[in-house]
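Posting for a labmate who doesn't have an account.
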Amino acid sequence: MANASDAAGPHAATTPCRVLIVDDEAMVRSQLRRSLELRGYTVAEAGNGRVALEMLAAQPASADVLILDMTMPDLDGAEVLHRLRAAGSRVPVVISSGYLDVAVERRLPRGEFQSFLAKPYSATELVTAIERARTARPADPPEPHRP
């Protein structure tokens, strides 16, 4: 997805950033981890929503941004986000989904997530979404998805 020379380029973390990837597909988590670490991000992984919620409850400041898959067994991304916000967490969230952003936005309150990524997406789109989420205020509505 990326090579080592990309890490120092314009698509690298602007400042230190800890990203928690929440996705039930191990291969997706692994690819995202490699791509983000090459760009200077610190990455943790959660294989499902329950694990992510437990990680964040135990260490609330352990992630600067969440990459949250919408379609997971047990707790889907919408439920994870709902529980996260109900617990008072304002960590910026990038929603990742293979479904249209209109369908996602119907399930999630505006302003509860900061960015949306339609699968499949490039490493550049991923970094852009993370950096956008980091600079958005928690109440900011998500950026509209480009067709």
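Reply:
Got it, the structure tokens are right above this. The helical segments are 26-38, 49-58, 77-86, 101-107, 123-135.
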